[in-house]
Amino acid sequence: MQSQLGDGKTAEITSIENIDLDEQVVLFEGQRLTEAGAEAIARDITARHGRTGGRPRLAEETSRLGLRLPRELHERLREAAHRAGLSESELAREAIDDFLARGA
Question: For 50-62, what is the mean pLDDT?
Answer without folding.
Answer: 66
